[in-house]
Design brief:
The chain has helices at residues 33-55, 64-87, 89-95, 99-117, 123-142, 145-167, 176-194, 201-237, 251-275, 278-298, 305-335. With 341 residues, the protein is an all-alpha fold. It is flat and about 60 Å long. Helix 1 packs parallel to helix 4 (99-117), helix 2 (64-87) runs antiparallel to helix 4 and helix 6 (145-167) runs parallel beside helix 8.
């Protein structure tokens, strides 16, 4: 089964404590229509905030009509969450009436702050930290996973801006891809470890894992595209009829990214063993099947057959070993006499 294992000293329940003592009644059912309606309603209102963020600064001056709609959407989401907390908290565990409007209202508030500050140096920090603060406050009130999701989003935006300010990632240096992958590794490890002691540890770990998988795949793909164009241009500079040599300037970046990916896979293996959750196992598969093939493209591998032999051989050995172990356990169980009554 893929149910999360109980770890010593770590509660698994996500049922939020009431400020009057006790816990909310949890009535999650597959046929509960209120949760679906809340999700659809939040999606539509949050879309208004996103549209407002896109178009409010399309021209140099602030478009107040669009911005006002974004403000109303943000206030509406936060207002519904507040009303739900005051008057429907005993039903919130079933309807999401506090968690979802509150969490996406926090993101909308961050967007509106970003639009108001425009291109100020502090825009990303203020907006991102506002999302984190509102999400943390909401989580402390109701202990729901929706606030964890938006808090991670706010942290990631702030983290990227901080890293760009510190390391100037936009200067196009030779090691920028390697640096981005390293920053993704650090963020993934820090958030996973920090969230490990919360009931939502699986959600936070899997979310940042998805960011790491997608981020590394995009970085490797960009390296492949850049290397291909540089090789093509070098061929043109050396004479149109000369076959272009492969550009090797980013090979070190690719190999380092592969090492970082391997470290993440190892960490997710440990997390999967400790929790028993399928999410970490899916991350292992997703990282391997996305990063390795794209890396061969970035390296312009002429004989990928050897990569296939190594990957297939190692994977096959693991599967055979597990199959033999399962067979031995099955035989041992069959030969064990039933206990005496």
């Amino acid at each position: 089964m893929d149910e999360t294992r109980q770890l010593p000293g770590i509660p698994l329940t996500t049922t939020p404590p009431s400020r009057f003592g006790g816990r909310f009644p949890v009535r999650f059912r597959g046929d509960d229509p209120e949760r679906v309606l809340v999700a659809v309603g939040v999606a539509l209102v949050a879309t208004v905030a996103v549209l407002s963020a896109f178009y409010s600064r399309q021209r140099q001056d602030l478009d107040w009509s669009n911005y006002t709609m974004g403000l109303l959407a943000t206030l509406g989401l936060l207002g519904v969450a507040a009303v739900g907390w005051l008057y429907a908290r005993d039903r919130d565990a079933s309807t999401d009436l506090v968690a979802w409007p509150g969490a996406f209202g926090a993101v909308s508030a961050g967007l509106m702050i970003g639009v108001a500050l425009d291109d100020s140096d502090a825009t990303t920090y203020v907006a991102g930290l506002a999302v984190v603060a509102l999400s943390a406050g909401g989580y402390l009130l109701v202990r729901r996973d929706a606030f964890v999701t938006t808090a991670i989003a706010g942290l990631f935006v702030t983290y990227l801006q901080l890293c760009d300010d510190l390391f100037d990632l936009g200067d196009g240096g030779d090691n920028v891809a390697m640096a981005i992958s390293a920053l993704l590794l650090v963020f993934t490890v820090v958030v996973t470890v920090a969230g490990w002691w919360l009931p939502s540890r699986v959600l936070s770990g899997v979310l940042v894992g998805i960011v790491a998988v997608v981020g590394n795949a995009v970085v490797l793909y960009a390296l492949g595209v850049v290397a291909t164009f540089q090789a093509a241009f070098s061929g043109l500079e050396n004479g149109g009829g000369v076959e272009a040599k492969r550009f090797e300037g980013y090979d070190n970046d690719v190999w380092v990214i592969l090492v970082f990916a391997l470290l993440l896979i190892a960490g997710w293996g440990v997390a999967a063993y400790l929790t028993g959750h399928v999410g970490f196992r899916l991350l292992i598969v997703a990282m391997s099947v996305s990063v390795v093939p794209i890396a061969t493209l970035a390296l312009a591998v002429r004989h990928p057959t050897w990569w296939e032999v190594v990957a297939g051989g190692l994977g096959g050995l693991l599967l055979v070993a597990v199959a033999l172990s399962a067979h031995d356990r099955s035989r041992a169980g069959a030969s064990t006499p039933p206990p005496a009554i």
